[in-house]
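Researcher: We're teaching a course module on how sequence relates to structure. For the next exercise, students receive a sequence and then see the predicted structure as tokens, so they can try to spot secondary structure elements on their own. Here is the exercise chain.
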Amino acid sequence: MARRPAAAGILLAIALISAGCAGGAKPAPTTPTSLPGTSWELGLQGGTAPAARTLPNLTFAADGTASGFTGCQPFAAKFTSTGTTLSITDIVLTPTTQECAPSTKTTADAFVAALGGVTGWRVETVMPTQGVEALQPVKLMLDGATPLVFTLQ
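Model: And here is the predicted structure for the students to work with:
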């Protein structure tokens, strides 16, 4: 009879270890085929990475609204998308009580201007190379006068 509790304990330990290992692995992100319901963080703006403490982000809602953070303050907008065309309009900045540093404000203003000039979108998936997984494999590319590259959040 003493073997049953010991065997049960061993099986329980194996199950917990297996569950812990499986729980730590992140599932591969799904590449979206449309924008509504997705959230993105800016990686490159016109080929330049934004300052890490002021990363702008963008979320597309199912109702045709977009919202996010410019790196300086929150914003709301409207978007329309047909196929790979995209237009972001009616961008409204939310007033805040915090002042941004001049360099951050300049970057945020350029981000808002770039969003207003967006004409199209596409999603690219970075494939692993030689067994090395990309940290941010799904990228949203927004075309316009200033290209914007986002990573999936």
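Model: If you want an answer key for the exercise: The first strand starts at residue 38 and ends at 45. Helices lie at 3-24, 102-116.
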